[in-house]
Amino acid sequence: MKQVFGVFGDPVGHSLSPAMHNAAFSALGMDCIYHAFRVTPEKLEKAILGAEAMGFGGLNLTVPLKEKALKLDFISPDPLAKRIGAVNTVVFGKSGEIQGYNTDGIGARQALLDSAVEITGSKIVVAGAGGAARAVAFQLAADGAEITVVNRTEERAVELAREISAAPLSGKIKGTGLSGLKELLRDADVLINTTTLGMHPNMDAAIATAEELHSDLTVFDIVYNPLETRLLREARAAGAKTISGVLMLVYQGAEAFKLWTGIEPPVELMKKTVVEALQA
């Protein structure tokens, strides 16, 4: 009998995690299968407990469930997830415990390093204030970057920055409103979009245009469907370096895979599978 893994989210139909993880399971000869399940926030508690009761091997959580999962009293978050304030990976322990982890920040860091982007000392603008923004901003501030979180609701950005800065950090972090984005980008080294702007099917939206970007900037959009978002096209038009959300998806997924199975997954195959699915 196959062991089931899955991703919970709402929406979740766009997710390529099933293709990515199923390719890895198949390559490693593991009798496992990974599915996407639409789960609303009010059903999250029952869904996770149901998955545990049915013997699931593990779960990923995506928008809008990551922060809510941390508040569920039956999940034991590891220190990193607790500090970030969001859970994106759930592990069902053999003795009945349910553990929560966050692999988003690790995935973002590896995507930047893969693209030869210096993190320590860089001025990084993170757009958004949700679960992914928390993970990315915390990880990169801990790695020594100077982070500015921008959000349409300024209070959320300020609060997120305040919460993250309560932890020991090598870098700095502050929050502000979206209205100051254009000015911030003039001096920024990296722009990371963690919002859903530009995600399929609303592909015409972008957090910034070519006129607001510059050639010394690295633009990283964690949206991976479509493969090239409007933001990445605008960045290319401005002569900026671009990083696709595929890299973060793959690296955070690889980290989750290791947490569930204790096995090193075939990362290059996972990457190839995602890219091929997006190009189909």
What does the model show?
The chain has 280 residues and is α/β, with parallel strands linked by helices. It folds into two domains: 133 residues, Rossmann fold (3-Layer(aba) Sandwich); 139 residues, Rossmann fold (3-Layer(aba) Sandwich), CATH 3.40.50.720. It is built from eleven helices and twelve strands. Strand 7, helix 6 and strand 8 form a beta-alpha-beta unit. The chain is globular and about 55 Å long. The model has no long low-confidence stretch (mean pLDDT 95).
**Count of DSSP helices?**
11
Distance between the termini: 31 Å
Q: Superfamily at the CATH H level of the largest domain?
A: NAD(P)-binding Rossmann-like Domain
Calculate the mean pLDDT score and round it: 95
Topology:
Blueprint: E1 3-9, H1 17-27, E2 32-38, H2 44-53, E3 58-61, H3 66-70, E4 75-77, H4 79-84, E5 89-92, E6 98-101, H5 104-114, E7 123-127, H6 131-142, E8 146-151, H7 154-165, E9 172-177, H8 181-187, E10 190-193, E11 218-221, H9 230-237, E12 241-243, H10 245-261, H11 267-279
Parallel strand pairs: 1-2, 1-3, 4-6, 7-8, 7-10, 8-9, 10-11, 11-12
Antiparallel strand pairs: 3-5, 5-6
